[in-house]
Amino acid sequence: MTERTSPLLTDLYQFTMLQAYFDQGMADTAVFEFFVRKLPSSRNFLMAAGLEQVLDFLEDLHFTPQELDWLANCGRLHRRFVDSLHELRFTGDIQAMPEGTIFFTDEPILRVVAPLPQAQLVETRLINLLQFQTLVASKAARIRLAAPDSLLVDFGLRRAHGAEAGLLSARASYLAGFNGSSTVLAGMKWGIPLFGTMAHSYIQAHEQETDAFEHFARSHPLASTMLIDTYDTEAAARNLVPLAHKLAREGINIQAVRLDSGDLAEHARQVRGILDQAGLTEITIFASGNLDEYKLAELVAAGAPIDGFGVGTRMNTSADRPYLDCAYKLQEYAGVARRKRSEGKTTWPGRKQVYRSLGDDDLMAGDFLTTADAVQSGQPLLVPVMRQGRRLAKSPALGAIRDHARAELARLALPLRALTPATSPYCVTVAEPLRLLAAEVDRRT
Amino acid sequence: MTERTSPLLTDLYQFTMLQAYFDQGMADTAVFEFFVRKLPSSRNFLMAAGLEQVLDFLEDLHFTPQELDWLANCGRLHRRFVDSLHELRFTGDIQAMPEGTIFFTDEPILRVVAPLPQAQLVETRLINLLQFQTLVASKAARIRLAAPDSLLVDFGLRRAHGAEAGLLSARASYLAGFNGSSTVLAGMKWGIPLFGTMAHSYIQAHEQETDAFEHFARSHPLASTMLIDTYDTEAAARNLVPLAHKLAREGINIQAVRLDSGDLAEHARQVRGILDQAGLTEITIFASGNLDEYKLAELVAAGAPIDGFGVGTRMNTSADRPYLDCAYKLQEYAGVARRKRSEGKTTWPGRKQVYRSLGDDDLMAGDFLTTADAVQSGQPLLVPVMRQGRRLAKSPALGAIRDHARAELARLALPLRALTPATSPYCVTVAEPLRLLAAEVDRRT
What we know:
2 copies of one chain form a homodimer.
Chain A: H1 12-24, E1 29-38, E2 46-47, H2 51-59, H3 65-72, H4 79-85, E3 93-96, E4 102-103, E5 110-115, H5 116-121, H6 123-146, E6 151-154, H7 163-175, E7 180-181, H8 184-190, H9 200-204, H10 209-219, E8 225-227, H11 233-249, E9 256-259, H12 264-277, E10 284-288, H13 293-301, E11 308-311, H14 313-316, E12 325-333, E13 336-337, E14 352-358, E15 364-371, E16 379-380, E17 383-387, E18 390-391, H15 398-410, H16 414-417, E19 428-430, H17 432-444
Helix pairs in contact in A: 2-6, 3-4, 6-7, 6-13, 10-11, 11-12
């Protein structure tokens, strides 16, 4: 999203807190980290996503005169404080895991170091961006693992939760390993490959199904996908055979058929048989309809002759678990480490780093969560991406992020790649320096 | 949303179908209807929402030169077709159920009558807008029914699926009966009442919790809500007592305390006791943290002394069921009724109307689904809202929609208001004229 997001897209409490900070002159450096408290039981790993949109938001953070007027007149805030927002920009530093990186419970994927009011104000939108894309990328990665060799296309825009969810889930699923999306705007914005077939309404608008097929093929002579389940799937496949032969003689190519209802494996076998018997072995079969990683794994295991899948709603609403237990927490203020101790929500204090070791087999062998200044073997996962409110480097291309994500998935041990919960979860060790810091913070408060 | 939504926020197949229609000269009048195929088992009713944003989208539908350039160069569409989009506007008619209306399986809540290409093109965004707000309004209505007398505030922006989801869920939950939202932009856009407290980070940024309370109260002397669970809930409540007395003498008012972790009912009882014993009976108790209609019903049944609830993630992701089995289907083209017969997805053909009867007790007694021109007793639920691409009347104020929603909930029989599935669902009768039309369509195809 290159469009500006209003800084009023936040919780009211950010402004009431900011006014209290303002009245008290509290503007020292604060350190916040974003992390997931606990992985859902149906996820063996998560995949970081959304950083790019966070950096866009921070670089462009400012208030318009209209927004300031509204705040000044909303009855909750005093004029001197609202006037001070006129100059507010984000001037902080960001460290983060690159998008596509796999991470686990308690591991920060982003750290903000900025004057307290700035770091506080951006909380809501940062969580909003990071949790959603991470949620979708993590779900999409599971779907990719369930069908490693299939064409996978995001079909979810219509039942995504609004415009931005539809657009960003095209991005998140592509970076996690999908081949593309049906969302045209995602193609325009990010160059994501676009896929599309036809709707039942297109078939129904014609008196004869075969006419609908022929008109479509003639309008798209290089490639077209025919939706064949509007009335009777196998009958449609049989009717397609003479048409495909006729069109082929004119150089018009039918690329695929799509199944969207019924027993997909059984229909695919029947249709494959009809097409193959007619010599139409080049026409591929594409399936859609309430799919997710579990259905795909079933279809793949059953050897259903399906070449590609359109996966929509259940992927981009992350339907089995539509949110993450994530938080953006103050870890340090004015040079002093802080810790929240609410029941069931205790956090590790201070600036942290995650170190990852690979085994001899090149698989992830375990992570260490420790303080940012500790000495620790392994590869540090959080890297600097923004200093004083400006990106340190041009953002990586989406294709490069996708390559990184694929490499990350390849480094996961088999039990973590499985759809079922791993009997022993990935090992994240809280290292001694962090334990000592936590004990010190507890003694102090 | 008054911002323009790009018409490229749609599925690629809309454009490939539109090109085939263009090549074939198919631009007769089409009738599409949006409906839910099957209510989720955990919903006894649904509440229509999202119409306002649909009408905004349709009134403003047009392509920019940049969008047309991109389409012309995307490699899928030919120039003559793309050029024809330059003039495309929505010139159709819309009938719809007013927002806040309760509806059931198979009942259309919106009908589009427009030239085929227009009615087709808008499919994706119409579903995207209607399903999401309907999903959230329906969930929020259940939450309101679970706690009829409590203050209910939408706290869900951070874990909503992106910006638009956060914003629109503030609107949808408010119209369904919430008292307000923490989302500031929703206050600016729609005048939705705003509520806010403070974050744990605000407390943690101070060395002493009581200092944090005092600074906040002095910054917000008219009213403030103190978050008391950062370290020890009851200790914080006890420390608040002398502070509240001191501030009261200066005319500074602490309005409420907030609980956000642990056993909310038990903490509320303890805290209520501490406050009451100190004569602070005016300070109310507000609770938040993973709440939904089931938790609220529990807390209300247990008599927990909680005055208000912040309900976030589980409400605005509709977490137990994050999508609806909804569709936007072609019902008529060029004057001829149509019907889809895919397995498990058969639809009722033609233009339809829903008639509702009330019993002597003023409760909804049953609906009739019939053809739009049939004679039928009861109140017709679909009403004209747009003609030739223009609204027929100024949109109702959000407050009026909210009043309508409340009246609708009051007309629901008790078993339908319950959180558990009603043993006998609400009766929707498919009337004779519609059955005859379906039979006629089946004979024809």
